[in-house]
Amino acid sequence: MQLTTTALGKLARKTLELEGDPTTPVPPFYVDLLEKHLRKCPNDTNFIAELSEPQNPNSTKGGNGFGLIVCMSHRYLL
Predict the structure, then answer these.
(1) SS3 label, residue 24
(2) From what superkingdom does this record's organism come (predicted)?
């Protein structure tokens, strides 16, 4: 699935449940991972992601690699 930058940003905000919070930025690493995911699974967009906190407060990467993904189509955890 090839999305525009705007559409990819909207999907990232939706999957991180940030649609109602315009001030919280989406981490760039998450947008990159989401884009890679969509190349492999273009129709798999109905999920919610909860990222782990970065171990270093100044980091632009995720935390320890353990976040949470909830599939909203089937309601199971990944």
Answers:
(1) coil
(2) Eukaryota
